[in-house]
Write a structure and sequence with these properties.
The chain has ten helices and no strands. By secondary structure, the chain is an all-alpha fold.
């Protein structure tokens, strides 16, 4: 091994080590911020509880053996997808925009911390909190609202790859979108409306098939619709795929569209991310 290769290897190890330590720091910081915990970590659970109680006397369909699909069954996959969006895109973009505004990124830019280590810390935090959030949603849905969880291993395998691809994509898009707000004070006013609109058009709060065809086609451009569809394929009866576009779960489409947005987010991060704003 040449001296240059050895130096490069040591540099990569140092970058990964610093990234791992940043994950621990970012997770601790996240849970110390009450507003972030409420509006990103607990908010999907609150919505699941509200919908499950409000529509407890209704039915959203039946399974093949005639069992009723309750509100909690119907909204669990939707809230799992929303959790990825809020923890990744919304929280990440607002958090980084705030760090730009208060000088945190400027101080980090003057330190030996590599940008890649910073990214590892941020994305690792989203993955860690996303796992905890999803586990909490599933446990509460099963214990408090009697949701029947899948028993087939292939269903949980689908959940795993949809979750990992979705949370990574939302985190990367959040980093890219952090360049949009002019300051940390305006970040929530800029980012939250975007995430709210995506939720309303992506079949989160109402059945996607009830939306107009043109709105379904428009929502299909964005990843949230596909993440919610992937989660529905795991937790809803197979008969519900008839309500999806094309009458199928289309997991291939879920993977392709989400992966495209992951690449778009990575490119946007490389083009837009700076330790400080250009106009600072």
């Amino acid at each position: 091994m040449t001296a240059a290769a050895a130096t490069q290897k040591l540099g990569l190890r140092r970058t990964l080590r610093l990234g791992a330590s940043r994950i621990t720091y970012e997770v601790k910081t996240y849970f110390r911020q009450g507003d972030s915990v409420f509006f990103t970590f607990l908010f999907p659970l609150i919505l699941l509880t509200v919908f499950s109680v409000a529509f407890s006397k209704g039915s959203f369909g039946t399974t093949a053996d005639g069992a009723k699909v309750a509100a909690a069954d119907f909204y669990l996959p939707a809230m799992l997808a929303v959790g990825l969006l809020l923890s990744g895109l919304q929280n990440m973009s607002i958090d980084i925009a705030t760090e730009k505004s208060d000088g945190t990124l400027k101080r980090l830019g003057g330190s030996p911390l590599p940008v890649l280590s910073y990214f590892i810390g941020k994305i690792g935090q989203v993955i860690a909190t996303g796992i905890l959030q999803s586990a909490l949603l599933i446990i509460v849905a099963a214990l408090a609202f009697g949701v029947s969880l899948p028993t087939e291993p292939v269903k949980w395998l689908t959940f795993a790859w949809v979750f990992l691809l979705g949370v990574s994509t939302c985190a990367v898009l959040g980093i890219a979108l952090s360049a949009l707000p002019r300051s940390g004070k305006t970040a929530t006013a800029v980012i939250i409306p975007i995430t709210l609109i995506l939720q309303f058009i992506s079949g989160v709060f109402i059945n996607f098939s009830q939306l107009p065809d043109w709105l379904q086609n428009f929502a299909s451009i964005f990843p949230l619709k596909w993440l919610a569809q992937g989660m529905r394929s795991v937790f809803l009866p197979d008969s519900f795929k008839a309500l999806e576009m094309g009458g199928a779960w289309n997991l291939g489409g879920v993977a392709i569209v989400t992966a495209i947005w992951l690449v778009v987010g990575l490119v946007a991060c490389c083009l837009t991310f700076r330790w400080i704003r250009k106009d600072s």
